[in-house]
Structures are given as structure tokens and as C-alpha cells.
Amino acid sequence: MTTQATPERYALTLDGVAIENRDALMQTLRRTRAAQARVSAGRKCRKTPPHWLAEQGFKPVSFAVTGSFSTAMVGELLTAGCLEKGLAPTLTLSDYNQFVQDVLDPDSDFLRADADYSLCLLDEHIVTDRLPMPWGLDDIEKALDEVLTLCRQASQQLLTLTKGCAVFNTLPLPVVLQRQILGARERNQLSRLWQGFNLSLLSLSDDSHRVVVLDTQCLMTGAGNWRDDRMAFYAKIPFSDGLMDAMMREVSALAASVAGKGKKALVLDLDNTLWRGILGDDGIDGIGLEGCPTGEAHLQLQKLIKQFASQGVLLNISSKNDADNVEKALKTRHDMALKPGDFLHIHANWAPKSQSVQGIAEALNIGVDSLVFVDDSSFECEEVQQAHPSIATLQVSGEPAGFADRLADLNDFLVMTVSTEDRGRVEKYRQEADRQALKASSADLGSFLQSLNIELRVLAANAADVPRVANLSQRTNQFNMTTQRLSEEAVSRYRAQTDKAVFALRSQDRFGDYGLIGAAFLTMTEESLHIDNMLLSCRVFSRGIEQAAISLILRWAAETGKQTVTAEFIPTQKNQRMASFFPSMGFEEITPDVLPPGTAAVGDPQSRLYCHSLSEIAPLPTHLHTIYEESCNG
Asked: What is the pTM of this model?
């Protein structure tokens, strides 16, 4: 009799090394960049027992894949890409060239899979198979119009019949097709027609937040040789392993972001990373930047990082240098793209960098697994990795001309949409530093909170709030009571239901506006209210805001004639500190059969259910000024 391996005994072997846990597997795949090696790794990983992935904490995500060509390598590359990001994929793969049948037949396995992500992978054959022989530009235009109509139909089918995200790709124009036209001007016309089609295809994402179109032309630039004519002819695989890997890594990064697995902050080395040379040896004037060929490559990395920061990535420094020297270099080298004000925390000392990483994570109030550590030293990367196995590291050594590309290629910070709150995140963290300075000078916690002049507003979320609410559900881990990750489309659908409501929590204090920092998802019956989920940004913990928000919701329920309020909590590795929140606010634990009619729990086996009788509601914290608007007042 064969005994199934337990999670403790199972080890996946990659490159001759036994990998026994999630962090080791994620880091190994992160370091495996060659496409063929990723195909091989993905093939082995597909045999990994699902129970082991679940025990190790990989988050499940489902994919359905169809296309106009063979998707033979998709399963392997998608598996490698997802596991690298902490996701455990389940795959429904269609046979060769089933795109038309799959998207038009409502009963196809592809549509019935109702996957989180439905991939429609297309190549030029979806167009060329419609051409007569010989063909002309009019025939190309007609075929492109037919394919565009088909893709729009497919998009509508997916939006109607599935709840997940629909993914398409633009079509590269093969040179062999263009060279079949002998007139140079006519070749230009063909390119315009083809690019026009791709632009129209890209615009599908304007129709719904649940549609994504991969720009294959862009991804090709990092994939080397994007086509293998021999494989295209004999195996019906037109795209190289490199291009397919780039596409699947893009999809995996997007899925990771939606699942709350995206990164939030960079911790950066300085010497031979952000500049050429060693500050302590070469001096402030001797480090290489503008005017130095290799230094300008480091400057290119700085410009990429500054671009990331403008969209909400939090920048920090961990450098083995004298603090005064670092401060002077950042201030006086005017050719530096990154300035002192771009960094939230600068740790310049001689302590182990793992200590700096821990201190930065605690100061930002985020998990170490939300950080990306970048250093030129293999020793420093290994020291940090050993101390913090869940951190993502990138060693930038060798030729600096590729440093920026290597950081960008990892795609750690991809989000579905960059919101206004994302762009203002750095300023909000600076305001938080001012608050902490006030806290340190205050006599006690009570006087500190009183002096903040906090205002909390609870109001019905409007259409403009949807992107931020979705973003919170995807990125918030510590105060996310059921860890349901919702797309913008899912939030909009929720709002549209007559028996549901989404409350937005907004706050400000004497230092500035926190913005939209939380949300509550509510299901209402005539006599009861059920809290499907509640979210709160970690930036506003320990201010009494969560207690005030739940008290306002309970008061609103009582004022609108509800007799009970029920709530659900599903413990995860990151939200354990909130396990006592509902009981602390007067809720009592119940069993599922006690839930009011018309409400339902998520159904997770770890779920805990609570009920509040509304007979005695906790008073509002006295240091807060609270407002709930008329739209929330029944």
C-alpha cells in the first residue's frame, strides 16, 4: 500500500536540491529566469500534491485556458509563475485551436470552469486562416474586423457567464506575413491595419474592470527571439518559451496582486547599487553617476525606482555606511535622481541588514513578505534571506546596464489600477511619522489620541470609491476579517444588489487626510444585518477608528429597526491579531444554524461566526469626532 506523503515529509526537487517549504520554493522560482528552465520547473511543480501546497499556505487560484494555437507550455509556465508569487493554480486547459468553440458555446468546459482568470491566447492564425489565396489588404482588413467582433463576443460571454477576469493578448505581426507583400507602401498599410486592430483589442479593457489585454508587442522586447518557425509549423506553438513565459508571468503577477500577494516597499542598498563605487572609499564626489558610463546605468535604476515611488511604492535604505556621509551624499550630489525626501526610512549603520529590514517593516507596519530587498552583495542578500525567509531579494551584480530591467522584470508591484490613494501613499506615511513624533512627546496614549483631533466619516460608498475599495480588499491583510479579495467589478456588483450595502470609512486628523481607509460589506434583511467583511488599513490601527466604525454600524442597524447584527471572522496567518475584535465589541460566538434567514457565511472550515443583540452598544471613543451621513441613516 502506498502512503501519501505528509506535508512535513514531502520535498520537491529542483536542480538537484530538495525544497521543503513555501519560502524556499518561491525563492528558487524567483531566481530561475531562463524560460526553458522555468518550463522544466513548472512541469515538476505540477506534480506537487495539492494538500502540500495548501498546508504551506499557497493561496488557490483557478485558470481556464483556450487559444488559437497549442497551449502545451502554458500549464508549466503558469504553474511556475503562480507558485513564485505564492499562488497554487488549478488549470482547465483546452485542446488545440478551440478558441471559437470555447467562447461561443455556453456549455463548453472553458466557460463552465468559471475560473478566476479565463485566458484567450491568440496568434496570427486566427486571422490568416480566414484569408483566401492569394489575398490582399482588403481581405486582411475584413479578417481583422471578424476577429475583433469575435473577441468582443468572447469578452461579453465571459463577463456574463463567469465571475472572474477575462485575459486576451494582442497579435504580433510576423515578418514572414508582411514580406508576402512586395510593395513597401502596401507593407506600411498592412502594419497600420494590424496596429489598428491591436489598439481596438486593447480598448476591450475600457469596457470592464474584469478584462485585461496583454500587450504582446511590449512583452516581446524582453523575450529575446519571440518566435520559433519550426515549433510554429510542427507543434503549432507560434510563440517562443521566452514570450510565453513573459505572458504567464504577467498574468501571475496580476493574480498575485488581486490575491493580496503583491509587494509594497523597496529596501535598497547604496554602494554599487544606487551609485557606482563605495562611498566610504571614493568619497561623495568620487561615486559614479552622471557623466560616468557605468554610473549612468545606476542612475537609470534610480529613475525606475523613482517612477515606482510616484505610484505608491515605499522607498527605504539599508546601507553599511556612516549616516552623516549618506545624508550628505543624498543632499549634495545634484545628479542624483533620488533625493532624501523620496525615502521614508534611511538605515545607515554597521548592524546586520536583516535588523534594518525588520525595523523598516515594523516602522511601516507591514509584513516582511511585503518588502523587496535589493543589494549588489550575495552575502547581504543571503544574510537577509536567512533571517527573513519570506522576503523577496534581488541581487544586482555584474553589468549595471541591466539592473533596471532586472528589477522591472520581476513585476513585484503590479496592481490592477493605480489609484489616487496609491499616488499619495508616501505623503501619508510622512504624516504618520509626524504623528509618531507627537506620540513620543505626549504624556500618555490618551493625551496623544486626544491631541490628534481625529474625524471618522462612515458613508455609503459611491462609484468613485469602487477602485479604492477593491484595492483595499486586495492589499489589506491584517484587518481583513474574511480576506475576500474583490475586483472592481465584484465591488460594483455587490453595491448594485438591493439587499447589500458597502460603507466607506474616511478619516482625517490634524496632520492630514487619511483618505478612504476602510470598508464594510453588509447584507441586510428586514430584521438583521450581516457583516460579510470589514477592512481597515494598517496605517490607522490603534486610533480607536475600528471600534468607532463598528459602533456606528451597530447604531445604524438599531436605528433602522434591525434586531441583530451578525459577523464572520476567518483567521489567517496575518489577521490573527483581530481574532478578539468582534468579542471585544459585544459580539457572542454562534453556530451557522443560528444565522438569520437570508444571510450566509463564506463556508470556510476555519470560520467563526458572531452575533450582537444590539441591546447594549459600546460607546464611541471620546477622542474621535464621528459622522455618518444621511445616505447611511436609512
From this structure: 0.82
